[in-house]
Design brief:
single chain, mainly alpha, 4 helices, about 0% strand
C-alpha cells in the first residue's frame, strides 16, 4: 500500500519573496516564470501584480538578450542596466506590497 503524500505548507510572503528575488536577479525567464507557472498549476495563490511584474521582467530580459545587453553572469553591463533594472523592480514591488 502506498503511503499518503505529505504536502508542504508554504507561506505566501516567502514564495512571493523568492519570485521577487528571481526578478531582481534577472532570472525571471529562467527561474521566476517556471516557478510561477508551477505554483499556479498546483493551486497556489500568487498576486496578479507580482505575476504581471514577473512577466514584464521576463520580457525586458528577452529584449535585452536580443539586443546583446548585459551578460549571463549577472555582472553589471556597461550602461548600468542592472542598477536600472533593480531600481525598477524596487519601485514596482514597493507599490505591490503597499497595495496588499
Amino acid at each position: 500500500s502506498a503511503t499518503p503524500q505529505r504536502r508542504a505548507v508554504l507561506e505566501r510572503r516567502v514564495i512571493e519573496g523568492i519570485l521577487e528575488l528571481a526578478g531582481r536577479r534577472r532570472e525571471a525567464s529562467r527561474i521566476g516564470l517556471p516557478l510561477l507557472e508551477g505554483l499556479q498549476q498546483a493551486g497556489f495563490d500568487v498576486s496578479e501584480k507580482l505575476g504581471a511584474s514577473l512577466r514584464r521582467a521576463a520580457a525586458r530580459e528577452a529584449a535585452a538578450a536580443a539586443e546583446g545587453v548585459g551578460n549571463k553572469t549577472g555582472v553589471a553591463c556597461e550602461s548600468g542596466c542592472r542598477a536600472d533594472s533593480w531600481r525598477q523592480w524596487r519601485v514596482e514591488f514597493g507599490a505591490s506590497a503597499a497595495a496588499q
